[in-house]
Amino acid sequence: MKLWRASVSEAVLLGVLVLTFLVMSQLSPHFLTPQNLLELPRFFAEVGLIALAMTLVILTGGIDLSVGSIVGLSAVVLGALHQGGIPLPLAALAALLVGLGAGLVNGFLVTRVGIPPLITTLATMAVFRGIALGISQGRAFRDYPDFFFFLGQGYVGPFPVQLFLFGALALAFAILLSQTAFGRKVYAIGHNEVAMRFMGHDVDRVKLAVYALSGTLSGLAALVLVSRFSTAKADLGQGFELDAITAVVLGGTSISGGVGGIWGTVLGLLVVGAVRNGMTLAFINADVQQMIIGGVLVASVALYGLMDKLAPMARRGREVGREAS
Fold it and tell me: What are phi and psi of 63, to 5 degrees?
């Protein structure tokens, strides 16, 4: 069972990752310390969970801008229910179901109503955040039992728990994409959705499942985030959509769908996480960080677009060379 065949983009990204580590080490002497490197997974785990499902969404040719708002909504539901006397395990299950429901709403609007994913999730991004603000009324929900903090603050040996959670789900998604009929359909839809429909495949069901996964993992990210910060607020998850999409696209997944994979996303996530961590250690303002991450997203889309245009030219050049010889 071959789960990873390294592509040119992933090989290039490994070089970018090494360069990123070198640059960040110059910004802060604390970046390359063992303690900081061990803590690094703790700070990209929530975005990483979202990015795994976002990979599937983008592979189908879609996009999900609502993931950060789903995080905030799921977090508020968790906090409000627990503060209202609901046992934490049931409140956590409800938060996951809210994430699933939000994803299904996105999927329904995209597949059944026919609204483009960009417009759908841009609208639901505002709707879900508004619902979260309405539920919380600006309050922060605290006072959780100690066992809950293991998810976001615990360790297994020297490694944070989030590393094992993210690693297990990354492996599961890699298997899902590379070894199952569902994964093959995800790629095929991104390559040619019309052909898939003419062949009789239920494209809408696959898309609905992909958006449901996106919402569910956003709900799971909310649980990890609340556990790490010990508080649930409506503004949790703001900006997560930018980091997740950047990691996916930087990892080589085509924004038009059909090309990419989980391990590229993991590498892209490491680059984004390292940049965020290094700039934070260097006390660079969060607004400047957003600008830089946005610039990375634009640059990566432009670079892969250029590579797509140059690849046919290179093939034609080789063919001409062979004919001439």
Answer: -155, 150
